[in-house]
Design a protein that fits this description.
The complex is a heterodimer of chains A (296) and B (799). Chain A has 296 residues and is an alpha+beta fold. Chain A contains 11 helices and 14 strands. The chains are: A alpha+beta (296), B alpha+beta (799).
Chain lengths: 296, 799
């Protein structure tokens, strides 16, 4: 478990980092290293060069915008997990954080790394697609912003182009006063990759009727998957256990679920149906209990 | 022999263990901490196929890489060393450290690269070009057992390493007499002990001193002999440094092949050679997987649930080579009826080779799978006669007034009080409340179940299964030893003669010597002799060290005390019988004369003129202790006294799971445990808690699985699921003490406690949870998705 030989660079500017990436298509970024280091050790990743972005100013931090929260790519999971700004504005992300690996992994692992790695079962990408957030990609000459829902193209595959560095993710903030969240996950052991994860955010009006809804699943298909049709079908309704279950069942019926040596696709679909329904009901109940709302 | 004290000064007291100090401060000294100057590093080239003929191995590109010193292949090694030893008389099942001509499992070593660093060695390993011709392979044990199956070792002629049927008692008569019969099959998946520290060895040949120095994470002292034999060098040239801390073992740390390879390279290149398995090497080719076993059970019983007779067929998948694996079918013969009065048993033990990694000894040496089969039988009989699962066990227990109790297979159980331990657990758990809690969970939509397991931990460790399964082997000696020295300054040093892999041998030895000599155990130093200066010893296997090292230490301390008394008696002009010893002081019965510890020690070391006639100077005693009740050969019909002592454990667990998600959550875990006299309560508690965690792993998580191409799926700790603290519940331990009449302090073993019953208890709980659905799960581990799939299939069938 020793990596193949590689070069190592630690640039001090984003531009320099992107230039290094542009100049060498076998170069990869190292941020927290929680996926890359084991991949290197097992020689599954064989990059020519590691570009360490940990000493570049401005890539870490949590920033409040008008309608969203910007999280810099080098922000550690542990910082997000403890952040009062995230807790009050993007509580779904807070709820997902304890499910990301184990505590020592969250101390090193970064938000940008988790998104760029594009593991279909990862929690941060799931929350981002659920909330319909955006991702900022930079290269040596400028930057572009794309919706998270079109960023993930397959397992461990994204729209990042050669010479680009993922620099930030924007998580939308809902303004409805009565908003609740639900996050559910089943993994083989605590801290393992999700076999299925479901994240939901629901807003209700004064009568308890759903006025906004977002739902997504991870670990089931080859990318984190938002279910906007399911979400919109529930807007305007009063949730019941049966209606939510039926809607969840309909949403998962035709999914092409992944399998692994220990997990059948059928299991993933059954569990997804249940966890979608559970997450939605939890979000709705959470919203009903909220009088002041989760936003400022 | 000194009389055992009736009350204890240090034994059974919750004293801090001596070893903890160095481990918790990070001062353990493991094989990977030892790197002499000029050390070269080894990386292995693994086979990619489960079965193939080796056509050629091109080492030129690897050898051309700067920093590479050599590339060794199986051919070169086989020409220079003897094959490794087999436990059974199967000489055609030849095994070397690396594949010779034929590859027999995926991951098997085909070449070893020696380089300045491990990283360079791995780089070069990728450059070794292997040309092979893949051939058919076989993974399934039933298939391997068929007479027409492809033989993994062609020269052996079949895959069968062992196929013997024992009949102990009138089995057929009992079956025909009994009112009822039932049969079932259960399967124990291939799991193991997977220590954090992989196997590692550093071998260094010194031609000027004719010494091969070996530091290794090895668990047993019967190691130097195997190295010497394979390398064709005298055993007294091999020096194994047994003071290396071993980071966990429970059976598997037996890297003979690693050591033969490293020793060969060291002698060839005249350099220290370090071979430390990485996780991949450990998982796929450390040859350290455990039992992989199918049980077919038939039970003859009466309407009231009394079990008369049992037929057990155990088919074990040993993997590609033999080693000691088949013996794991032999040890359970010593407790083949569990704690029950089953009157007769037919036992067919089958071990076959397949194209999986070779098997090694694992905690319990086959007893945990066997207990799982027996306990499943008890649950099935309970269900059949409509009796509570605790009651069925109580009804079949050996009564406490019938010990020593001779079981059909020839072992006499030493002592036990199973009803009382069960009573204590029932009280602790609050049985009626537990049932209510289960039913409340069920009412809440969960599948909830209670699991029960009652089982024995044969302990004291003996070799009886060797002559039983291999008539060419008539070994009946299975000793352990202790030497005690008191130096001229009066301090006490005890020497033990094997490595320790976390069992607390140091604490054990010091506690017992301290008890006998009435000296604070923390003042007694315990050291490990190297193999050249060791007394005869066997392995810390079979839960034996409390019994065996404890027995040797007790006897040695008694001999030392006797000698000190003789010296004191001479000064008093009294007979040794008249000398009273207390806390370091020797006195006459009337108290008129007395001598202190240092007075007597000084006479022994310096004043020959004051020694009794014929007394040797100095203070050094040894005891080489044969296993109690051991020494007999098996009878013709295969009856033999296996282990001397039999600890008892009774598990009670409540768990529940959602019918769709199917991830069991353990709500309550209570174990009643009786290992006789406890030497150190912390050590016994640690063993029991760790054993339960290990058992939960075997029951719910851990398995070395292979795909249909013969590739191992679980090569890392991301796929081989060891339970973590998140998966292990709080465990309540209820103690009971039924001393063994056969041991010096009444102690029995506890090194396998918890593990021997936990898998059965967890399986029982899951099956109790499934009972309302009318289905069972019959294979361990019970994995989440597979369990859910089973439930869903049952629901589909019903609808």
């Amino acid at each position: 478990m020793k990596p193949v030989p590689f070069e190592y660079e630690r640039p001090h500017s984003l531009k320099a980092a992107c230039q290094l990436l542009a100049d060498d298509e076998d170069a990869v970024i190292i941020a927290g290293g929680q996926t890359l280091i084991p991949m290197l050790a097992m020689r599954l990743a064989r990059p020519s060069r590691l570009v360490d972005i940990s000493r570049i100013d401005g890539l870490s931090g949590i920033e409040e915008q008008t309608d969203n929260i910007t999280v810099g790519c080098m922000t550690r999971h542990a910082e997000v997990e403890r952040s009062p700004v995230i807790a009050s504005h993007v509580p779904l992300l807070s709820a997902a954080m304890p499910w990301v690996g184990h505590a020592p992994i969250r101390v090193r692992g970064t938000i940008g790394g988790s998104i760029a790695n594009a593991d279909p079962s990862a929690e941060v990408p799931l929350v981002l697609v659920t909330l319909d957030g955006t991702i900022t990609l930079s290269n040596a000459t400028g930057s572009r912003t794309i919706p998270a829902r079109s960023f993930f193209s397959g397992p461990m595959m994204t729209e990042i182009q050669p010479g680009e560095c993922l620099t930030a993710a924007d998580f939308p903030v809902w303004q409805h006063s009565r908003t609740g969240i639900g996050f559910r996950e089943i993994a083989k052991r605590h801290g393992d990759f999700a076999m299925v994860a479901a994240s939901a955010q629901v807003s209700v009006d004064a009568t308890g009727k759903c006025i906004a809804c977002a739902i997504g699943i991870g670990g089931v298909t080859d990318t984190p998957l938002a279910l906007p049709e399911l979400a919109s079908s529930l807007v305007g309704t009063a949730f019941t256990d049966q209606s939510v279950h039926d809607a969840a069942k309909a949403a998962t019926d035709n999914l092409s679920a992944m399998s692994d040596p220990q997990t059948s696709p059928e299991y993933r679909k059954r569990a997804a149906t249940k966890l979608i329904a559970d997450a939605l009901m939890a979000a709705r109940n959470d919203a009903l209990e909220t009088s002041e709302g989760v936003t400022t | 022999m000194t009389e055992a004290p009736t009350s204890f000064r240090y034994v059974s007291k919750p004293r801090r263990t001596q070893e903890d100090r160095r481990f918790v401060t990070g001062k353990g000294h493991f094989v990977a901490d030892i790197v002499p100057d000029n050390t070269l590093h080894v990386a292995l080239v693994p086979s990619q196929e489960p079965a193939a003929r080796i056509i050629s191995i091109d080492k030129s590109a690897a050898l051309a890489l700067p920093g590479v010193h050599d590339v060794i292949t199986g051919d070169e090694l086989a020409a220079a060393v003897e094959p490794m030893m087999n436990g059974l008389d199967t000489p055609a099942v030849k095994r070397y450290a690396m594949a010779v001509d034929r590859i027999r499992y995926c991951g098997e070593w085909v070449a070893a690269v020696v380089a300045d660093t491990r990283a360079i060695a791995e780089d070069a390993a990728e450059l070794v070009e292997l040309e092979t011709e893949p051939s058919d392979f076989i993974l399934d044990a039933e298939e391997a057992y068929r007479p027409d199956s492809l033989a993994v070792h062609e020269a052996h002629g079949s895959n069968i390493l062992l196929d013997r049927t024992f009949t102990w008692g009138p089995v057929e008569q009992h079956f025909s007499e009994s009112a009822r019969e039932l049969s079932f099959r259960v399967t124990w998946g291939r799991s193991s002990t997977v220590p954090i520290e992989t196997f590692g060895v550093l071998a260094s040949w010194d031609g000027w001193r004719d010494t091969l120095d070996v530091w290794a994470s090895i668990q047993m002292p019967k190691y130097a002999d195997q190295i010497a034999r394979a390398l064709r060098i005298p055993m007294n040239t091999v020096r194994v440094h047994q003071d290396v801390d071993v980071g966990g073992s429970y059976g598997v740390k037996r890297g003979i092949k690693h050591t033969v390879l490293a020793g060969y390279i060291s002698r060839k290149l005249n350099r220290p050679i370090r071979l430390i398995e990485d996780r991949l090497e450990n998982m796929r080719a450390g040859d350290a997987h455990g039992p992989d076993r199918i049980f077919d059970i038939s039970i003859a019983y009466e309407d009231d649930g009394r079990i008369r007779s049992m037929k057990m067929r155990a088919l074990d998948n040993a993997g590609a080579y033999a080693g000691r694996a088949p013996f794991q079918l032999g040890k359970p013969i010593g407790a083949i009826v569990g704690p029950y009065t089953i009157e007769s048993v037919e036992y067919q033990a089958i071990s076959v080779t397949t194209n999986k990694a070779a098997q090694e000894a694992v905690r319990g040496f086959g007893q945990a799978p066997t207990n799982y089969a027996i306990e499943t039988a008890l649950d099935r009989v309970a269900a059949a006669v409509g009796l509570d699962r605790v009651q069925i066990r109580r009804r079949n227990y050996i009564p406490s007034d019938q010990f020593p109790y001779l079981i059909p297979s020839g072992t006499s159980y030493d002592s036990g009080d199973y009803q009382t331990v069960t009573d204590k657990v029932m009280t602790q758990v609050g049985w009626d409340d537990l049932v209510r809690q289960r039913d409340a969970l069920r009412a809440d939509g969960q599948l909830a179940g209670i699991g029960i397991a009652a089982c024995l931990e044969p302990s004291g460790g003996n070799s009886s299964f060797e002559p039983l399964l291999n008539p060419a082997n008539t070994t009946t000696t299975w000793m352990d030893s202790c030497r005690i020295m008191v130096d001229g300054a009066g301090t006490v040093t005890a020497t033990i003669h094997t490595t320790s892999s976390g069992q607390g041998h140091q604490t054990l030895t010091a506690t017992i010597i301290g008890e006998v000599l009435e000296i604070d155990p923390d003042q007694i130093r315990v050291i490990h002799a190297d193999s050249q200066t060791s007394l005869p010893s066997n392995s810390p296997v079979g839960s034996r060290m409390a019994v065996m090292l404890g027995g040797a230490a007790f006897n040695a301390a008694g001999k030392l005390k006797d000698k000190l008394k003789r010296i004191a008696a001479k000064q008093f002009g009294a007979s040794p019988d008249e000398v009273v010893y207390s806390e370091g002081t020797f006195a006459t019965a009337d108290g008129d004369q007395s001598l202190g510890w240092m007075d007597v020690v000084t006479i022994a070391h310096r004043y020959f003129h004051l020694l009794p006639d014929g007394e040797q100077p100095g203070l050094e005693v040894t005891d080489v202790y044969q296993v109690p009740t051991g020494g007999g050969l098996p009878t013709e019909d295969g009856r033999v006294q296996m282990y001397p002592c039999h600890s008892f454990e009774f598990h009670c667990v409540l768990l529940s799971f959602d019918p769709i998600l199917a991830k069991p959550e353990i709500h309550r875990y209570v174990i009643g445990h009786d290992c006789g006299t406890v030497i150190n309560p912390h050590i016994v508690k640690g063993m029991t808690l760790g054993g339960i965690a290990h058992g939960i792993g075997a029951a719910l998580f851990e398995e070395f699985t292979y795909d249909d191409q013969g590739q191992m799926n679980a090569q890392t700790l991301a796929d081989y699921l060891l339970p973590s603290s998140h998966e292990i519940p709080a465990v309540e331990i209820v103690h009971h003490c039924t001393p063994s009449p056969f041991t010096v302090l009444g102690q029995k073993g506890s090194g396998e406690s918890g593990y021997l019953g936990a898998p059965a208890a967890i399986s029982g709980a899951v099956n109790d949870a499934l009972a309302p659905l009318g289905i069972t799960v019959d294979k361990l581990p019970i994995r989440t998705a597979a369990l859910s799939d089973r439930i869903a299939a049952a629901a589909n069938t019903q609808s």
